[in-house]
Structures are given as structure tokens and as C-alpha cells.
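User: Hi! Is it possible to get a structure for several chains at once, not just one? Here's what I have:
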Amino acid sequence: MSITLLRADQVRNLQGVDIQPHPQLNIIYGENASGKTSLLEAIHLLSTARSFRTHRIQHVIQHEKDKLTVFARLQNGPHAHQLGIERSRRKTEIRVDSETVQLTSVLTRHLPLQLITPQVSSLLEQGPKMRRRFLDWGVFHVKHDYLNNWRVFHRVLQQRNAALRQHQPNSQITAWNKALVDAATVITRCRQEYLSGLLPILQNYSQQLIQQQPELGYQQGWPEEEALEKVLSESLMRDRERGHTQYGPHRAELVFKFNGIPAQEVLSRGQTKLFISAMQLAQVSHLARETGTQCVIMIDDLAAELDRNKRKALLDLLLGTRAQVFITLTEPGLLDIDPAQGHKMFHVEQGQVVDRMA
Ligand SMILES: Nc1ncnc2c1ncn2[C@@H]1O[C@H](COP(=O)(O)OP(=O)(O)OP(=O)(O)O)[C@@H](O)[C@H]1O
Ligand SMILES: [Mg+2]
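Assistant: Yes, the chains can be modeled jointly so their relative placement is included. Here is the combined structure:
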């Protein structure tokens, strides 16, 4: 799958962008503040309806304008699709093949996207939420009944938590336990199966990029050897005091270690970026292997933190996935590209994007 046409308007400083990306490699270069990250943000909006920089869409919509628009044509084997999004402060309109759709997940299925930014290290350094999101991205794309179970689980969890906060009788709270446990069991099984398929691929990429392999630990969100049903019953009083459910897959955690030491405590900054790139490359390759689905990979400021050889090593692995790749750089010379490698270069200047090979 690749984006064959991209139009974006009034996404931050972008104005009238209309480009035909290369199916494999796209280099987007330009000075600081020219609009490179904004271009990736536009593509991200098409996959998730959201920005990766802020939750406030009014900060993404161009100053003094009331809406932004992004449109793309995708080619997926013999199938062509059109995705469009228009966002104002109050309204989001999503169109897929000219039909209005309500669910963002429809966009995400059409355009699976991986993004590597200079802030990637937050995936290891911040709390478990980001790592659960990383994990769930993969499970969502590979296991198609996952989303429904995930939705059911969160609906039941919210209802149980509301009952806890409203100090309802015990019977009203425990009445949610069975539905919670049922959905939690499916979620946990899907996540574990997914991780056991992902791990060997991750080991391979990690070996190639940082010459070491991680140990991966998945903590399911409640004591390993115990049944969730029992744990929920035993923790009822504490749940009441806290006003929320403390155990379940919403508390799961992914732990990466090297020789027994947590990754974030042992890796250098460059290694951290390469290791997280390995995690994302592994997801992309695993998805292609399991379902035949090709992703789009975007790397904002690839050169940041990486020496010349590592930039090249990362580029070679990215191209090896056959995914469509968008890379931003402040200067095109920061990356050694084999002239025989099919690619396009786009120059960004003051919100305008120009194809330098056309
Ligand atoms: N809502 C907005 N409306 C108009 N311009 C905006 C808006 N939000 C941010 N900008 C401006 O858009 C410009 C492009 O920002 P962007 O982050 O895309 O630059 P960049 O090319 O990625 O730069 P860098 O190389 O420094 O990362 C900046 O000048 C920024 O101040
Ligand atoms: Mg930027």
C-alpha cells in the first residue's frame, strides 16, 4: 500500500500542498520551521484523525483559518482508495471513497502508519501507557476481533469504575466482574500471541541496529499466577477506596531489558532511537508477514542523534520492509542514498512543498 497523491491545506503553515509521493522512498527536506513535521502531521491526520503533537486541533489548524483539510489517494495492489479529512474546532468529517464515515478506525485500517520522531525515547522513558499503545497498534492490525473486545472491555471498566465512585453496593460492582474478565482474557491472549510472533523479528532488527538483543517481559496487569476474577474480588475494598479498578489489562506493562538492565537505563540516546526504530520495524514486518498489509513509515528528522553509518543502516532496513517511507531532514546531504534506489526529493519552503525531481 502506498500514498500516490497527497493534498494538504491549512495544516499549520502548509498551503496548497499537492504532491505525488514515490511508492518507496520520499525525502522531505527544508530549513527549520519550513513545514516538514507539519507534512507528516497531515499524513498522520489521515490515519488517525489526530495530530501527534497536540490534542488541541485548533493549534494544528492554520492561524486565522477555521478548518484544515487533507486528502490522499492510496494504491493497495489493484485497489485504489481515497481518504479525506476535514477538521474544524467543532467538527471532524472523514470520507473514505467519497462516503462519509464515523469511525476513525476505518481510516487506520486503510492507512497503517508508523511514526518515529526525535522524541521517540519517551516510549521507553514515560509511563506504561505509551508502550500499551505501541502493543495495541500491532494487535489491532493483526487480530481483527481485537478492537471489539477492547471496546467492550473499556465500556465495562468505565461502568465498574463509575459504580465504585458512586459507592454502590458490592453486588452492583461485582456484577461487572464476569464481563470484565471475559474481555480481559481475550485481550491478554491476543497480546501474548502477538508478542511471541513479534519477538524474534525484534531480536533480529535489534541485533542489526545496536548489536544486542533485548529480553522482553509482558506484565499482564495483575499477579501472573492468579485468576483475574479472584484478584478483583480480593481487591474490592481497595478499589472502593481508590474509586477505580486497579487490576486488569488496562494496567499491563511491557518491559525491555538488556542483560537484565532496563533499556532506558543502559542505552545511549542514539541506541535508544535505533532500538525504538527496531521495535517499529518489527511491527511493520510482522504485519506484512501475517496479513500482507504494507504500512507507511514516517521518520521525522532521521539524522538527529545518529551518526552517518547508523543513518545508512536504518535507511537500508527501512527500505528492506518494502513499506512506503517518508523521511524529513534539514539538508538532503545528511543521508547517503544509492542513486539507483528509486526515490523522490521534496523541498519544503515556507509551507510550500516542491517535487525536486519533477
Ligand atoms: N497553527 C499554525 N498556523 C500557522 N503556522 C503554524 C501553526 N502552528 C505552527 N506553525 C508554524 O509552522 C511552521 C512549520 O512548523 P514545522 O514544525 O512543520 O517545521 P519543521 O520544518 O518541521 O521545522 P524543524 O526543522 O525545526 O523541525 C513553523 O514556523 C511554526 O511556527
Ligand atoms: Mg520538525
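The first strand starts at residue 2 and ends at 9. The chain has two domains: 1-112+294-358, 121-292.

User: Great, thank you!
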